[in-house]
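Figure S7 source data.
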Amino acid sequence: MKKSIIALATALTLSTAVDAQKFDNLAMTPPMGWNSWNTFACDISEKTVKDMADLFVELGLDKAGYEYIVIDDGWMKKERDKQGNLVPDPEKFPNGIKAVADYVHSKGLKFGIYNCAGTQTCGGYPGGRGHEYQDALLYASFGIDYLKYDWCNTGKLYAPEAYKTMRDALYSAGRPVVFSICEWGDNKPWEWGAEIGHLWRTTGDIYCCYDCEYVTNKGLPTQWSAWGVWPILRMRKDIRKYAGPGHWNDPDMLEIGKCMNAAEDRSHFALWCLSAAPLILGNDLRTCNNETKKLITNKELIAVDQDKLGIQGYEYQFKDSISIWVKPLEDEAWAVGFVNTSKVEKTLEFDFKANTIFDEFSRRELNASKHEYIIRDLFKHEDLKNTTSKPIKTKIGSHDIYMLKLSKK
Ligand code: GLA
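Tokens for the predicted alpha-D-galactopyranose complex:
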């Protein structure tokens, strides 16, 4: 009898171990959407989220490929109820979260929410620790499609196990959810994240600037830093091999349309596309001007990000303040971006024939002396008169990017 109980217990344990997994076949290309944090922080409400959902569609973001509307920190009351359930803040969300999720779904969009693996979120709201299965059922009852899971107030928790517990909880709740690991790269999530989530933050928070470090102790007892677009992207250099369909490196959400000039916004967006990064907008869609709209809906750039191969691009060369980024694409094409990192205009001259680019990771080669490539300007949406048979020459403004696609002739 004893033996059969042990056998049954072992079988149950094994079957749970086999069954528990992340939801497959989600985020096969980097997720695209909008998140409340970068503009609204914890100051969010049903009205704001519904407004954003309306504008999302009015601006044509859905047609450009954006799908998710994600509510970040600040949606709950400061305490769980007597049964231990999270409670949406009744002032901010008078009709609860499901009503907002339903509204977002009625627009043909997907809906996401936020919590944290620790005892409290970074904003001081109840975290998920010890309530993972209960919370997962609640989220499923809201109808969420995406969960961003943060890393504040986690004490000595072991990150891979903490995130695995939430993954298993989501899986057992049964509603397919993209699981976004927001652990800031502290415990190298790229090494263990692919089995657990669909994307993982690679660094601390982004800050709205092109090239700066912002040091603060806001909200936390110790000092912490946030970084601009350029430093955040170059902070993690050797992790591209960990990214691919269903599991992405996430250099944080976009700061486009908020504080930088047009050239910096262009570089920011194109560099995220070259990096196969999740494209999660963070701007106030109510004040989205035409220039920003044109940029974030640039289909040719988005196609670079969303390329089916899912190969993360990399910095091929940095010379004379010009940083060259390359990304292998389908059909043996390549995206190539030349970023002027200096404060003055630069003249770029580049001869593809004299620079064979070989990507060790994907084993792909851009060899213009063997093949001729047509060169397309992804901002002007036109092919250059020259192919790779001649060197290219152009001026690039400070912090701007010259963004090209090369296709075999
Ligand atoms: C952390 C995350 C941010 C945001 C805030 C919310 O700082 O990295 O993206 O979610 O918490 O408090």
